[in-house]
Amino acid sequence: MAEAAMTSKGQITIPVEIRRQMNLGPKDKVVFTLLPNGTTIMRAKNRPIKTLAGSLKSKKRVAIKDMKMQ
User: Fold this and answer.
1) Tell me, what's the pLDDT at 39?
2) What residues does 42 pair with on adjacent strands?
3) 13-67, pLDDT tens digit by residue?
4) CATH 2.10.260 fits 16-66, yes or no
5) Are 41 and 32 a contacting pair, CB within 8 Å?
6) Helix, strand, coil: what percent of the chain each, to 5?
7) What is the predicted pLDDT for the residue at 19?
8) Contact, 44 vs 29, CB < 8 A?
9) Closest CA to 56 of 25, 21, 29
């Protein structure tokens, strides 16, 4: 679990381990969704699928062209 503190201006810094896992960089945008149970979901906004290549570890390598959308 990662933790961040809010500044007096309402800003937070996304912890480095989260930025790395989400492959976020400067100028990237994120979307926050608040669920009825109080859970907040944060996701990267409008990221082309190719930018995510290599962000998940797998024992078996698969080329992007060989992946099937389900």
Assistant:
1) 96
2) 32
3) 999 999 999 889 898 999 999 999 999 999 988 766 666 667 677 777 778 788 7
4) yes
5) yes
6) 20, 15, 65
7) 93
8) yes
9) 21
What type of residue is 51? T
For residue 48, the model assigns a pLDDT of: 67
- Are the CB atoms for 2 and 15 separated by under 8 Å? yes
Give the burial class of 68: count Cβ atoms within 10 A of its Cβ; 0-12 exposed, 13-18 middle, 19 or more buried: exposed
Model pTM score? 0.57
Could you tell me the two tokens for 42?
A: 């944060």
> What is the amino acid identity at position 70?
Q
Q: Find tokens 């492959």 and name the residue.
A: 23
Give CA–CA dist 15/56, Å, rounded.
Answer: 18
